[in-house]
Write a structure and sequence with these properties.
It is a single chain. The chain has one domain: Vaccinia Virus protein VP39 (Rossmann fold). 34% of the residues lie in helices and 24% in strands. It has ten helices and eight strands. Strands 1, 2, 3, 4, 5, 6, 7 and 8 form an eight-stranded mixed beta sheet that branches.
């Protein structure tokens, strides 16, 4: 499992999008029991905190102690530093395992084995993520150029798995058909720039070139965005399956 986010954990917590209420309503409609849930690759705990509203207990794990240091405390959530592929959880323990925007960093065979071991019979594995931000055409052109041409060579190969909405990878569970969702926000240009700065490809660019690639588009983006909030959308995808 790769760790691309420890060095920017506070920015990740501040700028990354959350998942829409409709997604959690759908998730709750397909899970059988609400005893114990595992948010695997929890990062700053945003999904774990949401799950705590509905489950008796929630376990949140990540390999990054820096990320977990940004997680919001909750009496129903226990955070621990553990790899996704090998944990100290008991067998047949979880009713639900959620992986949000992290599955592509895992060793899939090992993680699926751990998920099958720790899920109760009929328990649910849900993997989800979001695609490239969408906004109005003038700004979108700048963002697309930044994504493809400037930072493009610095994306990890695993990014392709996200672009394919996790559809091109094995998923050895009894799959349930899931709808797509959208997370929408009104952002200032500074919030947008903060979000773009959390990209793993931006971190890799800085390490290689020695300067921030956002400097190449910042003024252009500010000019077209203006001094106001603008609507942004994140397409959200999900796969879900039962442990049988």
């Amino acid at each position: 499992m790769k760790d691309n986010f420890s060095t920017q954990s506070s920015e990740y917590a501040r700028y990354r999008p959350e998942y829409p209420p409709e997604l959690f309503r759908f998730l709750l409609s397909i899970v059988d029991q609400r005893n114990v849930a595992w948010d695997c690759g929890t990062g700053n705990g945003q999904v774990a905190i949401e799950l705590a509203r509905y489950f008796d207990r929630v376990k949140g794990t990540d390999i990054s102690a820096n990320q977990l240091s940004q997680a919001v405390p909750n009496s129903q959530v226990e955070y621990t530093v553990q790899p996704a592929e090998s944990t100290d959880f008991p067998a047949q323990y979880f009713d639900l395992i959620v992986v949000a925007q992290a599955l592509h960093w895992f060793d899939l065979d090992q993680f699926y084995g751990e998920a099958k071991r720790t899920l109760v019979p009929g328990g649910l594995l849900v993997v989800m993520g979001y695609g490239l931000i969408r906004t109005f055409p003038e700004a979108q052109e700048v963002i697309d150029r930044f994504y493809k041409d400037i930072t493009g060579p610095y994306w990890d190969p695993e990014r392709n798995i996200v672009e394919q909405k996790y559809r091109t990878i094995p998923f050895p569970f009894a799959e349930i058909k899931c709808p797509d969702f959208v997370s929408s926000y009104n952002w200032t240009v500074n919030h947008l720039l903060g979000y773009l700065g959390t990209w793993s490809a931006v971190v890799h660019f800085k390490e290689d070139k020695g300067y921030d690639p956002l400097s190449l588009i910042e003024e252009e983006l500010k000019d077209c965005w203006g001094n106001k909030e603008r609507k942004v959308d994140f397409p959200v995808f999900m796969r879900a399956g039962r442990n049988i």
